[in-house]
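Re: the 171-residue chain
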Amino acid sequence: MNWTMTSPLALMLSLMIAAPALAKTEAAPETPARPTAPLWLISCSNQQNPDQLVCEFSQSIMLTELNQRVATASFTRAVGHDETNAAFMLPAGVSLPAGIAVSVDDAPVGELTYQSCDAQGCYATGSVDHAWLKAMRAGRQLVVGLTSRDGQAIRLVFQLDGFSKAESMLP
């Protein structure tokens, strides 16, 4: 077969001739499936206080078509302490006075307080008690309920698969 042909018609004809021969060759071995990324990511740092390591486990909701983050749920804990804090990045355009309710599998576990908003979204925090953590360890979904400025209810759903494992990995 002559691959130096220059016209598009000649190239198409060459491919049509070669296609049956190529189809008879053995299929390439299948590549093993890539393991899925963990839903909960862990990072630890002593950047804010060099004498104390603080770890965060977080999950983001992404619009995969646009590779754009919609919301992030983060939980932080200082090593050696039981206190856990929640920090959420939520979409802009929400009704700040309406507040934020957090539930696990439709059972209320806590509330968040808005801290600020910017072009990236709105930021809210809350203290996480033992009942909230226990519900997350046993639950399937963490749901953040908020209201848009035009009064529409918004439910942001974070999957709790792997949450217990991520939490148990904290030092």
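Residues 1-28 have pLDDT under 50 and may be disordered.
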